[in-house]
Amino acid sequence: MIRVLCGVSCALSRPSRTTWLSGYRGCCGYDHTTSYPAARLHEGCDVPPTQPWLAKSYVHGANGPPLLPDTIGTCIERAAQLWPEREAFIFANEGERRTFHQVFEEVKKLAQGFLALGLQPGDRIGVLGPNSLSWVLTQLAAAHAGIILVAINPIYVKDELEFALKKVGCKALVSASAYKTHDYYGMLTEICPELSGSHPGALHSKRLPELRAMVMMGESLPGTLSFSDISAAATSESEKKLHLIQKSLDMDDPINIQFTSGTTGHPKAAVLTHHNFVNNAHLFGCRMGYHGQETRICIPVPLYHSFGLVGGTLVSIIHGATLCFPSPGFDATCALSAVQKESASLVPASLVFAASPTPARRWCTIIYGVPTMYVDMLSELSIHNYDTSSLEIALMGGSPCPPSLVKRVITEMQATDVLTVYGTTENTFTFMNFPWSDMKEKKTETVGFIMPHIEAKVVDTSSGEIQPIEVSGELCIRGYCVMREYLDDPDNTATTITADNWYHTGDIAFLDAFGYCSIIGRSKDMIIRGGENVYPAEIEKILYLHPDVMEAHVVGAHDYRLGEAVCAVVKRKAGKSVSQEELQEFCKGKMARYKVPKYVVFMESFPLTVTGKIQKHHLRDDVNKILGLK
Asked: For the chain, what is the mean pLDDT?
């Protein structure tokens, strides 16, 4: 029996995940009380395409149900009313657990404290540090008070941090004092020498003239406030002010600034709204079936990135999902331990759809991660035993997901299914993905199909004309998910978002006749070898099929005659000694001759962003140095 989960997505859920309750109404309000296919799917439901229907590479997501007009503050309050005693956030390393009611009460106090500190709606507040309860509370409290959250990459060095704070004009910064090798307070005192001698909350910095307050997530340091000081500063006056602000906030108000990943050049500051965040989390959660039953998700991905910020925190607030954060930064051992330990008896089937407190803890049934995280978890599993049998879904995104890795996660991590999510920072979080019931062959070859209320097209990179199906070009997106702008950067905004509101992703892709999307690679990562275009993802996909290859990335190495030569950078599996010649021979016959790597360089680690994306511009530099080419 396969239940129809109707909502923003009428996703067809697997029997092991669901128990049907007569009369349950999904997000769209349509009463599906019978099993699929007996139930007639109403117009507008978001179901996986099962028949070829496209002739050209243009597709529109489902039209229903309507988008939500809510602000994030409204969603927080509603979550506290619907699931007051249900756990919202678990931070395993801190030993902290919060219910939705507790979160709402702490968020209100913190928001009032920010207002008492002198922050106003529209001001910018930065957050710097690894995953923590303070991070999440700051995110939600800022939104509650109409203050724009600036998510700052926790591995930024001093110059990058100064650039980010100056670019957006932060009035306050909430920061950890240090994490691993990063001395945040030390960097801040170098940028702002006035800090240590200033009165807390009254900083006047020559280099950062708009910055007034530094708040430490732990104990206060010279010139700073402690995190607890902020909530303690709340007054009856700031409480009244917060109430008035809540009434005046609009869904189209900017609420977040996300820096692009910065894999090439200076990061740009994407401005996103309540409407972007709320609806992307809402529609994604419905497609995943999070609205249909209580869900517990292991979140090892960073909060500063949209994967954790929207796919984690906002999904939790809107759908009542419990999030377990295993460690401040990614750690394979902690992530696997969290899946194993966050368990007890299952929730009774009679309470699956009830908006009532949970009588017992449940297994973590879902885990998030980028491909490199799964590679590390698989390595850890090869050394130590963990019980991961509770995993129903391993969600993979952030960068291309090799089919061979997907298969290993299913077999070795015991995940029932692996689903990919695809999107960009400028499009909030995701616009292409899968529901749980989708065709297996599509899951390993594509990034899914378009979400509701979003349009996608693939265009010729020269003419801009829409391509026929199965013909590659640049992927463009239009809909509610597209950012407002790049902050104070009209030229880049106009280049990226056209006058008719199409966002150009810079990704080379094609659509099949069903509407599923395949990503070939980044246009900026494309290798031009003697006039031939080579997309690294095509070669990486083949290299992952070799039994001795743990991880593979392809870049262009300098070549005097051809301009660029294909270079594969490979991490071998433990105890394996595959050679360059063997890998080149393995590739022959599986790809055109000009795509076969001229060079193979073996490495044990790769330059990564904090979200696990390969920094290919650094990798190219490393390869050219190793090979003595430039």
From this structure: 86
